[in-house]
Design brief:
By secondary structure, this protein is mostly helical. The chain has helices spanning about 1-10, 55-80, 90-165, 175-185, and strands spanning about 190-195, 200. The chain has a two-stranded antiparallel sheet with strand order 1-2.
Length: about 220
């Protein structure tokens, strides 16, 4: 306190006002508050704060005004329930309007789906027709190729059969005849051939015949 009195005598201001003398500092007195987590002091642990006193006349007047307000609000709400205001939304009407909007949107969606399905059906038919034509073309091409191959195969088969007949191959028709001929005729391969190509069956008896074309000489 002696420091504050000295400052006041010298012309300083304690509550934020600047001093008339520049040499003296300015002090601001701030009340210190405890943090929330700091417990209550031991000296004030069992001390109860004094209950604030209220004017009974003022309390009675406030209670009367509150009762009047509640009565008026109840009357207004009763009037609203009995005579509905046109500006307020009617739940039945709102529900009917929502149903109408939903029905209209459903009809609109069905119409759009019909139009879309018709367009898609046309596109689908065109795509299927194009695919069918392409498939038919491929099949015709394959049939043409098979016909050409079959014609070539028949021609080659006829040529091969004729060649076999000319050469004398075994066939189901001449197999029995060839078997009888092979049994009736015998071939002797016990001979030799000299430098001139003469077949030598015996050294004393030499044949002047030369080997036929196509016969093996070894």
């Amino acid at each position: 306190m002696s420091l504050i009195n000295t400052l006041l005598k010298s012309g300083a201001c304690v509550h934020g006002l600047e001093s008339t003398r520049q040499a003296l500092p300015v002090f601001d007195l701030v009340r210190w508050r405890k943090p929330r987590w700091v417990p209550r002091a031991k000296s004030k642990e069992f001390v109860l704060s004094k209950r604030p006193e209220q004017d009974p006349q003022e309390m009675e007047w406030l209670k009367t005004e509150e009762n009047h307000y509640r009565t008026q609000m109840k009357a207004i709400w009763q009037l609203i329930k009995l005579v509905p205001d046109q500006s307020l939304p009617n739940p039945i009407k709102v529900k009917a309007d929502k149903y109408k909007i939903a029905e209209a949107s459903w009809q609109d969606m069905q119409e759009r789906m019909k139009v879309w399905n018709s367009r898609v059906a046309v596109l689908r038919e065109e795509a299927e027709a194009k695919k069918y034509q392409e498939k038919q073309g491929r099949l015709l091409g394959m049939l043409g190729q098979e016909q050409v191959i079959s014609e070539q195969f028949t021609e080659e088969t006829i040529k091969r059969l004729n060649r076999e007949k000319e050469v004398g191959f075994l066939t189901p028709d001449n197999v029995e005849q060839r078997l009888l001929e092979s049994l009736e005729t015998s071939a002797d391969y016990d001979f030799a051939i000299d430098r001139d190509g003469v077949r030598v069956v015996d050294v004393q008896k030499t044949e002047t015949k030369k080997p036929k074309e196509g016969e093996k000489t070894d």
